[in-house]
Amino acid sequence: MTLAKSGDLVAIYADESCIGNGRDGDNPGGAGGLIEWLHPKSNEVTRCDYWISEASTTNNRMALRSVIEAFRALSRNGNSYRVLFTSDSKYIVEGMSSWVESWMARGWKRKGGAIENLELWKEAVETASSHECQWRWIRGHNGQPQNEYANFLATRAAAEQSNSGGLRQSEFASWMAKHQEGPLRLKETAPFPDLHSFQPSKRAWTI
Hints:
Helices cover 32% and strands 21% of the residues. The protein has helices spanning 59-74, 90-105, 118-128, 145-160, 172-179; strands spanning 9-18, 29-38, 45-54, 82-87, 132-137, 168-169. A six-stranded mixed β-sheet has the order 5-4-1-2-3-6, with helices on both faces. α1 packs parallel to α3. The longest helix has 16 residues, at 59-74.
């Protein structure tokens, strides 16, 4: 799929799922996301989807995979973007905007002991490092359309154990039409973010 030009603002809404998280045995999981950018000529929002799955995982692992897969797709052609990454996972938002900086300063260690999912944290930092990123938390299951759609992609991937194999043309519009009236009680679709309000993390990561 055709992505925005290098330097453009991109919005990502990501979510994760793990069936039976924390229980004994294999717990299948999934992660998914909706990627948006504003077409400079038509001024219309273009969208694409991605999703991945694991046969035995945890919510936190899949939250990290939602970051890794998104930035891996964005970085595929060597482009660098301004990225507003929205998630209902405080594990991701606080981790990527705060925790990793102190962990890296200590040689990837933390005061309280070993870092859970260390290799995935390193991979998340590596894939995001060439982009300017703002990490934004949103309350989950609150009717925000893009977040609810990311949840749909993640839970479907977990249940079906499917993978998108990269970016796919988004089905957000048809999903919205189907669920406009229903138990999700969807709110208005969030507008594409204003570049003037974009506030990237003030940090240079050295991998």
